Amino acid sequence: MPKARKKLRRISLSLLVVFLSLWKQPPAWIQTSPEPPAASSPSRTAAMQVWLESGAKQDGVDRVLGEDLEIADDGTLRLDGRTVGCAVDVSTGDGQSKARSLAGCVEWILLEFGEWTMIPVENILAACTGGPTRVAARIRDAEQVVGVAFALQIGADALLVPPDVLEAALIAKAQRGEVVSEEVPVERSTFELEEFEVLGVGDGGVGQRVCVDLTCLLEVGEGMLIGSSSSSLVLVHGETLQSDFVPSRPFRVNAGAVHAYILMADGSTKYLSELRMGDAVAIVHCNGQRRVGVVGRCKVERRPFLLISWINSGGGESGTMLQQAETVRLLQAAGGCVSVTALQPGSRILGWTSEGGRHIGTKVTGEIAEH
Q1: Domains in the chain, ordered, with CATH?
Q2: How many CB atoms lie within 10 A of CB 144?
Q3: In terms of Cα–Cα distance, which of 237, 253, 256, 252 is closest to 319?
Q4: Which of 41, 188, 275, 361 is the most buried (most CB within 10 A)?
Q5: In terms of pTM, does the model score above 0.85?
Q6: Which run of H or of E encompasses 276?
Q7: Which residues sit opposite 309 in a β-bridge?
Q8: Burial (Cβ within 10 Å: 0-12, 13-18, ≥19) of residue 227
Q9: Which of 92, 111, 222 is nearest to 160 (CA)?
């Protein structure tokens, strides 16, 4: 038995030595793969580039294939004549495995797709997250642009597109730039809200009420600016609070009657009756922070209304119609909210005042009165 144990120990040590030698010196196929980018290589950023398959360089286009961008027959990718990575067909599992294996080893991977686009690009973006390798995607159809540009809330670092998809790619590039801007806290906090004093609460009859359902979730303290006059809007809270009687709907704002204005993401206004799926609205927090929300659905039903009137800090009077329901709430300066059914003359609520009138939702300097 002792001799058997000694023999087994010698075999184990021999195997360990072989393993360590292989660990220190990887097989040849690993050594011949592209070298990792130099320390000076650019890291991944939120900005997105647009590469054009053919044509002349123009505003918004970063590179043109055949000029400062080359793809060799073997897939080698060159920028400004310098080899930076390779193009990989990710239409198969083997192709995706190859692309994942390059993460961290090259500066760029250019993905070329088959029938599937989103799942492969998400897989490779996930593999490259946190590393120096940037991901470009070759897009054939305009319908694929937004999905790839915002995949996993990261998006590809570049889109290679034919001329007929260029417009969609440039729009997505601009939208990516807007997202970067929104992430700067100072820029999100410049929206000025003020306190309104409630003048009265009365019967508003029955009419068609609009619930605005978003494609994102609202936080407590967030809502939308609504009003019967485009120059005086009140901050209506989202349905984010729990209740013993009805479940919360954290994607929804019960915005009021169809005639009311709502503040859009670009600073214009629309009538609630005009809102459509895909419209971008302003989501405003009671502390003044603002972000963009996309409309997923508008739910219109006949409901009873309360007529709520207020006066702003400058002495101007305005109001709006909101559904008579305990779950419809207005934001207050202290960060709380009050149900419209509990409002009384003298109650303080948050709102926003804009000088001048509006024509088709756009601010104009002419005198316009709304009563």
Answers
A1: 36-183 (no CATH), 194-355 (2.170.16)
A2: 20
A3: 256
A4: 275
A5: no
A6: none
A7: 200, 319
A8: buried
A9: 111
